[in-house]
Amino acid sequence: MRVARTMGWLAGAAGAVALARVRRHRVAGKAVLVSGGSRGLGLCIARELARRGARLAIAARDVRELEAARVELAALGAEVVPIACDVASEEDAARMVREAEARLGRVDALVNVAGIIQVAPAEGLRLQDYRDAVGVNFWGTVHATLAALPAMRARGDGAVLNVTSIGGAVAVPHLLPYTAGKFAQVGFSEGIAAEAAKDGVRVTTVVPGLMRTGSFLRALFKGRREAEVGWFAVASSLPLLTVGAGRAARRMVDALERGERYVVVGWPARALRLLHALLPGATIRAMALANRLLPSQGGVSADEPAREGHAHRPRVARSFLTALGDAAAARNRERPREA
């Protein structure tokens, strides 16, 4: 009985501590800067932050998309500061943080979402494709984080949430530039989490699997473009393979409030990460088999620029198989004005 009472007391104390952590880091009234916040997952996260009472700065490259997102988020009752910015530029990212601090008073939390994805076989890619992906997916996170950290460290409090990808834990065929950037982003995020903790800064690494954001319309494609758009659009739309963007955003904001260090979103991503950890060689062999089912090189030359998916949709990517993805694209502002 004494042991049972002791265990019950310890469980209750642990629950109280966990609850206190959530309350201590709630985003209500806090200033949160979201890069890539004008559409897609970034917009979904900004919506969730707005619903929870955060004051927002959202950053993206397209001024018109930023304004449309600002109007929507303001309608949810949030204070919203739009900032036109390319986080691949160190100067732009530093200016983004300075402007957010000036207009909101401070940046309590930084959410790094901005990213690009190119889809093509390795033979259809050139060095610039890798530079572009690493420039946004890795350096964008580094630039913004290093710009925001000094003020957080000085006051002994702050949070950074880095949205990476299962592609940063397991290499996926036909996504090599994206994967390279995401692997680097994961390493930086985990490392800075360990080093910033002593200063009271909480860094969360989020590793999501496929999500239904509608991003296949804005992803960049090379090689046999229609064939590449076809498989990518279907894979990112099917319900059993993907997580709804709104649900994923709620989980990520929960992690931000709780100060969690590492979160994998979606059971397919958790299963794939576990498989890779236990059987890395077998996972690579499985990916090699999957690669045989993907389109072979052809179509445009590797020197041709990548094009957005909405311009090259085959019939399969306009069918019931992508209905959920199309609905998500419309909801999350991923549908281009001309599409």
UniProtKB/TrEMBL annotation:
<protein>
    <submittedName>
        <fullName>Ketoacyl reductase</fullName>
    </submittedName>
</protein>
<dbReference type="InterPro" id="IPR057326">
    <property type="entry name" value="KR_dom"/>
</dbReference>
<dbReference type="Pfam" id="PF00106">
    <property type="entry name" value="adh_short"/>
</dbReference>
<keyword id="KW-0560">Oxidoreductase</keyword>
<feature type="domain" description="Ketoreductase">
    <location>
        <begin position="30"/>
        <end position="214"/>
    </location>
</feature>
<dbReference type="InterPro" id="IPR002347">
    <property type="entry name" value="SDR_fam"/>
</dbReference>
<dbReference type="InterPro" id="IPR036291">
    <property type="entry name" value="NAD(P)-bd_dom_sf"/>
</dbReference>
<comment type="similarity">
    <text>Belongs to the short-chain dehydrogenases/reductases (SDR) family.</text>
</comment>
